[in-house]
User: Which sequence fits this backbone?
């Protein structure tokens, strides 16, 4: 099985410690985010999304916390 290692550090706190997180290829992004939150001391209500581009805020492909789009009004 393939596993991926990510080095995670809080961007807003340059003095914070980093964490190495290893995730198997069979895990979902939601499961990955759960591990991220736990390792960084955040609760599971913390908002999150992953983008496919280097400028992730403007990414055309986004994976985000389900509650962020499940309750959106119909267009």
Assistant:
């Amino acid at each position: 099985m393939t596993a991926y290692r990510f080095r995670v550090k809080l961007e807003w706190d340059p003095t914070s410690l980093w964490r190495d997180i290893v995730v198997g290829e069979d895990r979902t992004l939601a499961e990955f985010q759960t591990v991220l939150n736990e390792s960084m001391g955040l609760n599971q209500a913390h908002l999150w999304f992953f983008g496919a581009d280097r400028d992730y805020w403007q990414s055309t492909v986004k994976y985000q916390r389900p509650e962020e789009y499940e309750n959106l009004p119909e267009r």
